[in-house]
Amino acid sequence: MKPSALASSVRRGDRRALAMAISLVENGGPGSAALLRSLKRPTRTFVLGVTGPPGTGKSTLVDRLLQFYRKMGLRVGVVAVDPTSPISGGALLGDRIRMARHAGDRDVFIRSMASRGWSGGLSRATSQVIQLMDAAGFDIVIIETVGIGQADIEVVGVSHAVLVVLMPGLGDDVQVSKAGLMEVGDVYVVNKSDLEGADAMVVNLLGLVRGLKSRSAAVVKVSAASGDGVEALGKSIEAIRSKLKAGDRELMLRSIKGMVVETARGELMQKFGRLSDSKADRLAGEVLAGKLSVSEAASRLAK
Ligand SMILES: Nc1nc2c(ncn2[C@@H]2O[C@H](COP(=O)(O)OP(=O)(O)OP(=O)(O)O)[C@@H](O)[C@H]2O)c(=O)[nH]1
Ligand SMILES: [Mg+2]
């Protein structure tokens, strides 16, 4: 199918076309650039990032949020980024299984993607997939990152709002701030409120949030397993989404800028991959011959 025809089918909401288009941009083939060029500019979709350390309940919570938004009649796309499995080389199925009850719903589209070593908890094509889901008319795109604990969290850039999902027993609040997580959240979710230590964690987080200078953030306690607190969490996300609906320019720019930067990063990395190997061989030879230092060779390669 021609990229322009594929783009029209995606815009009509054709699910098979969307699946094909996502595979095309994931593989980065020749038609991919043409397809992306023929999409209209991003306009309406609310992008919600869900991040946090491994095993805190992100997927279980996304499943609850799907229920929350489906009750409102909204159409939701989900991108679940999994670490690349060393065995299969593809995305793990765990996240899809947790959200399986929505599999038959025509207004929900769930896609797992492998991170394939791409940093920041995303996959290389994440921002392109957001653009495709936007074109397909989804009201909300939820991105679940690879379970991460460090500060290079690119999901912040592409999202309009970021949930940082934590749970009791992760260690004290100092560890949360050390991991850079206090720099990124719009809503801090203390999940697994059925476990001991949840209330103490909420108190600690409220203290940290009050200390934030440049912005405000909320702290919400939930149990994704039972659904307790999910309505309240949904309301605090809706407070942010309503700003987007009202045309908040800063918020719109935040996600668009993140997508531009991520896409540029992807292009640079691809170019670098094509160039680097033969040049690196030659430069390594020059280092071995004593003509260049490693850092001089690296600067030349970077240029
Ligand atoms: N007790 C309790 N367990 C929960 C709750 N929510 C999720 N879990 C469990 O926590 C485990 C991890 O849940 P996931 O939803 O896979 O967590 P995740 O953050 O998506 O995990 P990764 O994607 O692997 O980082 C599962 O065994 C869930 O059943 C909760 O509210 N209470
Ligand atoms: Mg998960």
How are the SSEs ordered, and which strands pair?
Layout: H1 3-11, H2 15-27, H3 30-37, E1 46-51, H4 58-71, E2 76-82, H5 94-98, E3 108-114, H6 126-135, E4 140-144, H7 155-158, E5 161-166, H8 173-178, E6 187-190, H9 198-210, E7 218-221, H10 230-245, H11 249-288, H12 294-302
Parallel strand pairs: 1-4, 1-5, 2-3, 2-4, 5-6, 6-7
Helix pairs in contact: 1-2, 1-3, 2-3, 2-6, 11-12
The protein binds guanosine-5'-triphosphate (GTP) and magnesium ion.
What is this structure, in a nutshell?
With 303 residues, the protein is α/β, with parallel strands linked by helices.
Number of helices: 12
Question: What's the overall average pLDDT, rounded?
Answer: 84
- Major sheet strand order: 3-2-4-1-5-6-7
- For this structure, what is the CATH class of the largest domain? Alpha Beta
User: What helical percentage do the residues reach?
Assistant: 40-55%
CATH architecture of the largest domain: 3-Layer(aba) Sandwich
Order of helices and strands: HHHEHEHEHEHEHEHEHHH
User: How many structural domains does the protein architecture include?
Assistant: 3
Broad structural category: alpha/beta
Looking at CATH, the homologous superfamily of the largest domain is P-loop containing nucleotide triphosphate hydrolases
> Which ligands appear in the coordinates?
guanosine-5'-triphosphate, magnesium ion
Q: What composes the largest sheet?
A: 7 strands, parallel
Estimate what percentage of residues fall within beta strands.
5-15%
Overall shape: globular
CA(first)-CA(last) distance: 38 Å
Strand element count: 7
